[in-house]
Amino acid sequence: MTKAFFNLMTFLLFLAPFLSAQPSLYTPRDFRQAVENGTRTFTGQPGPNYWQNRADYRIDAMVTPTERRIDGRAAITYTNNSPDTLLQLNLKLIQNVHLLQARRASYVDPAFYTKGISLSNVQVNGRIVDWDNGAVHQSEDPTNAWLLLPEPLLPGASLELTLEWNFELQTSKLEHREGMVDESALFAAYWYPRIGVYDDISGWDRIIHNVQTEFYGDFNDYDVTIRTPKGFVVWATGELTNGKEVLSPLALERFRQSQTVDTVVHIITQEMLAAGQGVKPAEELAWRFTAQNVTDFAFGASDHFLWDATSIAVDSTGRRASVQAAYQPESSDFYEVAEIARACIGYFSTQKPGIPYPYPTMTIFNGYGQMEYPMMVNDLDMESMDDTKALTAHEIAHTYFPFLTGVNESAYAWMDEGWATLLEFFACTELYTLKNPEESIYPGYYLRRYLGVKGAEVDVPLLTPTDQLLAPAYQLNSYGKPAAAYLSLYNLLLEYNFLECVQEYVERWRGKHPQPYDFFFTISECSGEELDWFWQRWFMEFNTMDLALVDFRQAEEALFVTVRNEGGLPLPIPLEVELEDGSSRYFRFNPVLWKDGDEIELEVPVEGKVRGIYLKWEDFRDVDSSDDRLEKE
Q: Looking at residue 568, what DSSP letter applies?
C-alpha cells in the first residue's frame, strides 16, 4: 500500500460519516461538490478541508467635507488559503454604483450620481500594475473590477497590494446607505477598494451591487487612520486607539467613564461644542481605529454632532461592550438611542438568541440610512419611538447575521434580514411594549404587501437567489417570509430546543461563511428532527400562508376540528374556541402536524357547548380570512 493511497483511505474514512447522511431534499450541484471536496458536510459542520481567504487592511484616509471628498491609500496583505491558484483579484468598487451608467434596481434622485471611485498607483508586491479607471467605469459592471496579477498567487501564499484612491461623497437624502448628511457631517461606507470573497462554492463573488442588493465580505483585520479638519469627531468600526491624541481632556475623561458604567454619559454636549472643548485644537486630527476579524469597516464624521455613550456587561466574565450614539442636536429621538441600544444588546446577549454580543463597541450614527455595519449602524430619525426602538433593535440584531456568521447576503438576504426581523420582533414584544406594534414590527409592518398582492411573485421560493429578485418579491423573501419561517420553526422545536440549535449554528459558523444548506443541516442534526419536509415547503416550493377551517363537531367532552392547509406552508394552528356562555379558550397546535398531509382533524379538550371556532392570527398572516371562522348552525 502506497503512502498516497493510505492517506486517501484515511481521509475517506474520516469523511464517511459526513457523506453518508444524504439529504432527501433538493441540494444544488455546487454544494454537493463542496461536500465531495471535504469543505462542507451533510450534517451542517464545516468539512475537514474547509478554508477561507482573508486580508489585513492598513488604511490612511483624508476626509475633506467642504469638497465632499475622501482620498485614501492602503496596504493590503491578502492570503490565499484556497487550494486554487489565483490569476486575478476581484476588487469590490461599490462607489461606482453612483455612476450614471451603472446598473441599479431602484430609482435614485440626481443627488445620488457621482463620478465614481478612481484608483491610482496600484502595485502588487512592489510592482506597478496597469489600471484604467475609464475602462472600469464603462464596463458592464463597474462595481466588480478585475486586477490581473503579475504572478499567480499560489495556494497558501500571500501578496501585498498597495493602492491609492479618491471619490466624491453623494448628497442624496433618500435614505441611502452612505454619503453626506449635511455640509459638515458624513457617513462613509463601501468607501475603500475591498478584495471580494473567493469561496469554495462559487469561486469569486461576482454579484453586481445594484443599490438593492447587500453584501458579502471576508473576515479581515483593519488598522485605519481617518484624518479630518479641525473640530471633527470620527466614530468607526472597531476601537479608538488614540483617544488621548484627538479628544479634549474633558471628552476623554467622559469617554473612559462611559466604558465602565451602566448609565448614559454625555461625552460631547452642545455647550462643549460651543466652547470648542470636544476635541484637540489641532488643524488636522488623525483618528486611529483597529478591528479584528470583521467583514467590513465604516465610519461617520461630524463637527457638530452630540455624542452619548454607556456600556453593558455582555457575558458571565463581566466583559463590557461600549454602546454609543452620535447624532444631530435637532434630532427628535436620538437622545434616547444610546439607552435603547444598550437594552437591545443586553437582551440579545442573554435572551434571544442568547449569544453574548461579540464585539467591543457599537455605535448608532444619525444619518439618512437604515443600514448595518460591523459595530456601526447608520439610522435616520424616525416618526415615533416605536419605530426608533424597532429600527435600533433590527440593525443591532445584524451583529449575529451577517457579521458574526458571514453569510452571503447578496445571494441569500433571508439568511440575515429574516433573522434580524425575527430578533427585532422578539425584542420589541419581550423587551419593549410598543404603542402600535402593527405599524412598526413583524408581522404587520413586514407582511403588509403580502396580503395585497396575489400573484406568483409573492410566493417565490425563499431559496431563489436574492440578487435575481425585484420588488415585491425581494422585500418579502428577505424580511417577512423568512421571519415567518423561522418563527414557525420556533413553534415546531419549542423555545429551548430552537435556541440551542440556533446557538449551535452560530458557534459552528462563527467567523465563517455558511450557505443555506449549512443552516438546514445544522438545525436538523442539532434538533434530532427529520426536517427535510419543513425546508422543502418553506424554502423550495411555491407555497403561501393559508389555513382553512373545514368543519367541527362535539362529542362528549371533546371538540373535533378539521383544518386544511390550503397554502402548503407548515404553520402553527392558532385556534380560538368560543363557548355559548360567552367565554373562550385558546389553543396553539404545533406545525409538525403538517408533516404527513394537508388536512388534519384536531381533538380539542373543551367543556361546555361550543358556539364557534376561528383562527386567531397574531404573529402570522393568512392570505384568505374568509374560511378562518366557523359558527354553530
A: B
